[in-house]
Design goal:
Layout lengths: L2 H11 L6 E5 L5 E3 H15 L8 H10 L4 H4 L4 H9 L5 H13 L4 H16 L3 H20 L23 H24 L5
Antiparallel strand pairs: 1-2
């Protein structure tokens, strides 16, 4: 085993602990990519076994690598991704794949190829595990937005349409989505009610 190469990769991946997303924690701190990934893996561990035919180990592996490229180029929030695509810019995954390849190039070939393949499985949704990882990724984001101490201008209503194409099935995912939509709508209403007229 090439321990030095693995350590180099792990040192580079540490950047995910300090790369921030658009959401906030319940303490009002910007959420890191690593924090998002941790709870996504926890969701996979808890919910994966409840969905027939899922290889939970593989699901967790996919969740672990799904945002790995953000250690290089950072996170692009979903509203910004939508604006970029509408303006004709390439989709986020084009650059992110290259970032995953760059980061994984620090590893021995076998591990490098495994990580890139897992990321591609997530992005393309070519397996039940890849599809479920994408569903849970969207739901973890919405969950965080419903419990984060967000700034007053935070657009909660964006989440009511966010990732809907990935969260309509299976029934467990749809049920979770319905609960989070209810919470999102309630919080968005409370936020607009509490906002001062000149805000």
């Amino acid at each position: 085993m090439d321990i030095e190469s693995i350590l180099a990769f792990l040192r580079a991946a540490e950047k995910l602990k300090t790369t921030h997303r658009s959401g906030y924690t319940s303490a009002g701190n910007p959420e890191s990519v690593a924090e998002h990934t941790w709870r996504l893996c926890l969701m996979a561990m808890l919910l994966g076994p409840e969905i027939g035919g899922v290889d939970v180990g593989r699901l967790v592996q996919i969740c672990l690598v799904h945002d790995l490229g953000e250690a290089i180029s950072g996170d692009v929030p979903a509203p910004e991704q939508a604006r970029r695509v509408a303006s004709g810019a390439p989709a986020k995954h084009t650059d992110e794949r290259q970032d995953v390849v760059t980061l994984a190039s620090l590893l021995p070939v076998k591990q490098r190829d495994e990580i890139v393949a897992l990321w591609e499985e997530y992005e393309a949704g070519t397996s039940l595990e890849g599809q479920l990882a994408k569903s849970l990724d969207k739901l973890e984001t919405i969950l965080q937005h419903t419990q984060g101490d967000n700034p007053p201008d935070f657009d909660l209503r964006f989440n009511l349409g966010y990732g809907r194409e990935y969260t309509a099935r299976p029934p467990l995912i749809a049920a979770l989505r319905a609960i989070l939509d209810r919470d999102t709508a309630r919080l968005a209403d409370e936020s607009s009610t509490n906002r001062k007229p000149n805000e």
